[in-house]
Each structure stands twice: as structure tokens, then as C-alpha cells.
Amino acid sequence: MTSATQIEAEVEAEVEVARPRARRINGEGIVELLALPVLVVIVFLGYLWWRDSAHLDAIESSSLNWAAVRVQTWQHIRLTLVSAAIVVWVAVPLGIALTRRGLRRAAPVVVAVANAGQAAPSIGLIVLLFIWLPSWSGFWVSVLALTLYGVLPVLRNTITGLQGVDPDLVEAARGIGMSAPSTLRRVELPLALPVIMSGVRTSLVLIVGTATLATFVGGGGLGETLNTGITLFRFSVMVSAALLVALLALVVEWFGRVLELVLRPRGI
User: Fold this and answer.
1) Can you tell me the distance from the alpha carbon of 268 to that of 108, in angstroms, rounded to the nearest whole number?
2) pLDDT tens readout for residues 51-99
3) Ramachandran class of 218: left when φ > 0, alpha when ψ lies in -120 to 50, beta otherwise
4) What is the value of pTM for the model shown?
5) Which end of the chain is least crowded, N or C, by CB within 10 Å?
6) What is the pLDDT at residue 22?
7) Does 106 map to a domain?
8) Which long-range contacts (CB under 8 A, 24 or more apart) does 229-238 make?
9) For position 246, which CATH number holds?
10) b or e along 186-197 (b: 16 or more beta carbons within 10 Å of the residue's beta carbon)?
11) How far is CA 1 from CA 5, 146, 175, 177, in A?
């Protein structure tokens, strides 16, 4: 008679077969991981060379002052990290809940609401939240708006990833006596993780770009320099700010790839 331990081992073996093979860090993988940061460093060094050799007027020199740019960059990073952490904390558990039996029917409604929130004009949403929440600081109003914009990719990918897990594996795990939380932790989430992390990376890039609008409610960030360039018709200031935001987005996207490799369970 087959023991429960043997059956559980067979289920684990089936899960391993269903998982994609582990990504080998071969030459192609190394190029994938190193190409993006190398590109960012080269472009940034080119920007440093231009900044030190360019003939800038007083307004341009003041706007592109290194001390101010460093402060704004840190503010931008802080907005991104805090918003992304809240997005993951909210969207992943919500996505899990919406794939459970009791709340499964509500999933299309919740995703539709998240779609509507992201479809709203970003600058309008930030300003309206600032008006509706007068006691909040510009930083936290910006974080709330960025969280609303970043929830959809993570929520949608969490639902999609969990729904894509082979139901036979879930039933087999439950059949040998695994509890629902244990099945979720040991079978469903490991298989859905690549799809979930893809949503997290998309959300990170979206948050970095939208964070430039935080300047309109006093939230800080590189949007201050960008807005200065647009307002004062200084092309060099505007392009510099846009370039720095783009480089920051590339760095964040690369960080998301590395995080995916680190968090991905063995065998996936």
C-alpha cells in the first residue's frame, strides 16, 4: 500500500516536471544581466561629459546643480520604492484572494475597477487626491496616486499566474492531505511566480515614469527639473531631466530582473 509520504513525493515530482527548467546563467544569461547596467553607465558617463563641458547660462547651471539633482533623484527613488512596496503588499494578497473559491466571481469586477483607475489621467488623479486629502503631505499623496497606478499589472498577473496553474496538480496536492495554505505556498505560488514578477517589473517602470508628476503637489522628484525646463523653455534642462528619469527606469527594470532571479524558487 502506497504511503502518504510516497504520494506526496510523487506530487512534488509532478510539480517539478510542470515547472520550467531553471534558467542557466550561461553566456546569454550573463549578457542579459550585464548589458543593461553597462548601457546605463555608458549613457550616464556621456551625460557627465556633456554636463561638464557644456556652456550653460545661470538658469541652466542652477537647475542642473549636482546637489539639487542628487536630492531630487533620491526623492524619486524613495517615491518609487515606497509605492512599489505598497503595491506588492496590496496587489499580491488581493490577487490570491480573488482566485479562491469564495471570491472568484468578483475578480472581473475588481480588475475592471483597477483598469478604470489606471485609465484616469495621472496628473488629474494626483491633483484631485491632493485636494481631497488636504492634511496629507505631497509625498504621501503622490505615493497613494502611484500605488493606484501600479496595482493593476501586479494584480492582473497574480490572478493570471495562479489561474494558469494546472488544476490536476492542485487537486493531487489536496488529495494527499495538504491544506489550502500549504498547497498555495508549495505548489501554486512557485509556479505562478514568474508571471507575478513580470507584473512587478512592469509596475516598477510605470511608477518611475509617473513619479515625475509628484512635483505638482510638492512630492519632489526629478519632475521638478523637468518642469523647470518646460516652464522656462530650457531645452538642455528638460532633456537632462528626461534622460535621468529614463536611466532610472532602466535601472529599476534591471533590478526587477535580478530580484526575480533571486526570489525564484529552485527548479523554476
Assistant:
1) 29
2) 888 888 888 888 888 888 999 999 999 999 999 999 999 999 999 999 8
3) left
4) 0.82
5) N
6) 43
7) yes
8) 229/63, 232/59, 232/63, 234/59, 234/60, 234/63, 236/54, 236/56, 236/60, 236/64, 237/59, 237/60, 237/63, 237/64
9) 1.10.3720.10
10) bbbbbbbbbbbb
11) 12, 57, 16, 17
Return the C-alpha cell found at 209: 515614469
Please tell me the predicted confidence (pLDDT) of residue 266.
62
Write down the pLDDT at residue 157: 93
Residue 21 belongs to a domain: no
Q: What is the pLDDT of residues 189-204, one digit of tens each?
A: 888 888 999 999 999 9
Do residues 194 and 20 make contact, with C-beta atoms less than 8 angstroms apart? yes
Rg (CA), the chain: 23
Take residue 82 and report the three cell numbers written for it: 515606497
Q: In 10 A of CB 129, how many CB atoms?
A: 17
Q: What pLDDT is attached to residue 180?
A: 77
CA separation for the pair 254, 268 (Å, rounded): 19
| Enclosing domain of residue 32 | 27-263
144 residue type, one letter = L
* 20 within a domain of the structure (yes/no): no
Residue 17 included in any domain: no
CB atoms within 10 A of CB 263: 12
Q: How many domains is the chain built from?
A: 1
Q: Identify the DSSP state of 106.
A: G
